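Hey all, sorry for the wall of text incoming. These are the two entities for the joint prediction.
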Amino acid sequence: MTTEANKKGLAGVSIGDSRLSLVDGAEGKLLYSGYRIEDLAANAIYEEVVHLLWKQRLPNTQELESLRAEIARMAEVPNAVIGQLMQYPVDANPMAVLRTAVSALALYDPDAEDNSLSANWRKASRLTGQITALTAAWPRIRKGLKPIAPRQDFNIAQNFLYMLTGEEPDSAAADAINAYMVLLTEHGMNASTFSSRVTISTGADMHSAIVSAIGTLKGPAHGGANTEAMKMFMEIGELDRVGDWFRQEIKEKGRRIMGIGHRVYRAVDPRATVLRERAEALARNSDTPKWFDIAEMLANMARQDPYFIERNLYPNVDYYSAIVLYTLKLDVDMFTPLFAMSRIAGWTAHIVEQMSDNRLIRPSVDYVGPMDLPWVALPDRN
Amino acid sequence: MTTEANKKGLAGVSIGDSRLSLVDGAEGKLLYSGYRIEDLAANAIYEEVVHLLWKQRLPNTQELESLRAEIARMAEVPNAVIGQLMQYPVDANPMAVLRTAVSALALYDPDAEDNSLSANWRKASRLTGQITALTAAWPRIRKGLKPIAPRQDFNIAQNFLYMLTGEEPDSAAADAINAYMVLLTEHGMNASTFSSRVTISTGADMHSAIVSAIGTLKGPAHGGANTEAMKMFMEIGELDRVGDWFRQEIKEKGRRIMGIGHRVYRAVDPRATVLRERAEALARNSDTPKWFDIAEMLANMARQDPYFIERNLYPNVDYYSAIVLYTLKLDVDMFTPLFAMSRIAGWTAHIVEQMSDNRLIRPSVDYVGPMDLPWVALPDRN
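and here's what came out:
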C-alpha cells in the first residue's frame, strides 16, 4: 500500500479517524469540524474555535462567555514557574524556554497525574490560558520587565497583547492576532499533533503530550518556518534585491524558499490566502510596508518558475504569517512560540480524541544491520 | 497492506531501516547491532553498549576508556539546573521532574541549537552522563539531601549508585544496575524512541527529541509498567495470597497483569529471561526474598491459564526488572526514571540515525466529521 519512499515519513499513511479537521490538499480546502476556516477567521474569536474543536459544535452566547471567562481565570502562571523563567538565560531559545516552562507547569498542576476526562478538560483550559501567558511573559522577562497577569475581561487575543505590552490592545492588532490564532490552531495529523498522540497513547499525561508537541513544532520544517521565512525576507532586505537574490540563492545555489511548499497541499494553502490579505492590509497601515512587497515579489517569481510550477509549490501559512507578526512588532524569534500558543486548542482536542479510543502507537522498523555476531572479549578487539 | 484495526496503532507498519537492533518477536530474540543481548548483559559495561549503538562496533580497551572518561567528565549537571530541581515540589511525579530538568539542560548547553553531527555526538555524551546524574539526584533532593557530583574514575552504573548513596558502590549492586541498563537501552521502534524520531524529523534539536521520549516513556503502557508491576506485587503482599488474587482480580474482575504481555513478543521476552535470573540471585541474598517468589508464582499461574496461553502472554522486561530494582532498595516511583536513563543510548543513536537520512514524519488521518457546514452568527445559535 505504501511505497518504500513514503513510508519513511508515513506520508499518506492514515493513523485512524478524526472529527477535528479536513485538510484537502488537492483542493486547498480546510474545515474545522465542518466549518470553513475562511468563515471562522472572519467571524469567530479564538475561544469559539476552542469550543468547536473541544465539543464539536459552535457555542451559543452564554457558552462562549463561560469558556472565555474560564480560560482567562485559569491563565495565570504559578509564581514558582514565573520565578524559574526569571532564572533562565536571557539568550535561550524561546521554544526551549516554552517547552521547559510548560513542562514545569505540570509540577504545580493539581490535575497533572489525573487522566480522567473531567481532569483533562480542566487541564486543557488551564494550558490554553497559561501557554498564552508564558508566550507573552518571556519577551518581557528577557528584557528585564515584569510579567503581567491576565485581565479577566479580555479574550485570549486581547489578553496576549495586554500581557505582552501592558497596554490596552489596539483593536486592529487584537483582531489580527485573533485571526492568526484561529487559522493556526488545527491542521490534521501534522508532526507536532502526531507527536502529542504518540506520547498520550502510552497512557502518559496531557502535559507530557503538549511538551512533545512543542519540541516537535520547534523544527524549521514545521513551526520554525515562520521565523525562518522572516529571516529570509530580512536577508533580501530591499525590494530591488529580490530578483538577484532569487537567481543567486534559489536558482544557482539551490536553497529552498522558507514558507513555500507543503507536505499536504498541492494547491494554494487556504490559510495563506487569508493571511496574505491580512498581511497586505496591516503592511499598508504600517511604517514597514516593504516586507509585504518583498514577500509578494518573491512569491510571484516562484509562481512563474518551472521548478515551482511542476512541483505545485505555493506559499504556505508560515510565509504570510511572518509578515503579519513582524508588522505587529513581535520579536522574530517569538513567531514560533506564537504558533505553539495558537495550536494549543488543536493539540488538546487531539489528545482527548486519542484517549477516547486509544491504541498504543508503536510502529516497527526494518533491521538492516549485521546478524548473530560472535562475542569478542575486550582484550581481543582491535 | 495494513488493516483498519492495526493502522491505528501503526502495528507492523515499518517507518524505514535501522542498524540499531533486531527485535524478533516470534523467536524471542534481541540483537543490538548484531550482538545477542545475553552476551552483552553478561560481559559488557554500559559504555561498551553505548559505543556499539553509536558507532556500530564494540570499542577496544582504549576507545572504551576514552568514552567512559568523556561521559563521566560531562555528567555534572549545571548548578542552575540543580537549583531549579531544589525548587520543585518534593511530591512531584519523578518522570515529570526528569522531563522538566532535561528540558532545562538545553538552556545551559552550548551546543543546544547546533544540529551538526559533531555537536550531536557531544550532546549525546553529555545527556548520557547528565540523565544518570539527574536520576540519582532527585531521590536525594526530595529527601532534603544534597546531590553528589559524579566521580571521574567510575563507570556509569557505579557512578549512578555513588551519586544516589554517596558511598562506594557494592560490586554486586553495580553489576546488577549495569546489566539492567544494558538490557533496557535499545528496543527497535518502541513508542518513546519513535516519538524522539518524530520530533527530530522536523529539524528540532536533540534535547527536544529526548524530552519527547521521556514524556512518552512515562505512560503505564510503556516505561511506567515497571512501577505498576511492583505496585501490583505489593498489593498482593504475601505468597499465600497469589492464588486468590489471581482468581479475583484477573479472572473475575478482568484486570491485566502489569508486566505480562508485549506488543511485539509472541514468545518469551529474552530480556525477561536474563532479568529473572538476576532477580532470583539478588532476592536470595536479600532481606526481601518474598517479592521474587510472589512474581514467580503469579507468572506460573498465568503460564497455565488458557487466556494467557492462547494470547502468547509472557512476562516482559518490566516484570522482573521491578524485582531487581526493588531488591536494590530503589524507590518504587524511581523505576521509570531508571528506565529512561538506561534508554538514553538507544534514543540518542536513533536520533542521529534519523538525521542521517531524514524525512519529516507526518502521517495522515481520515476525517469523519461533518462537511461544509454553513456559518451561523453567534446570536442565532441555540
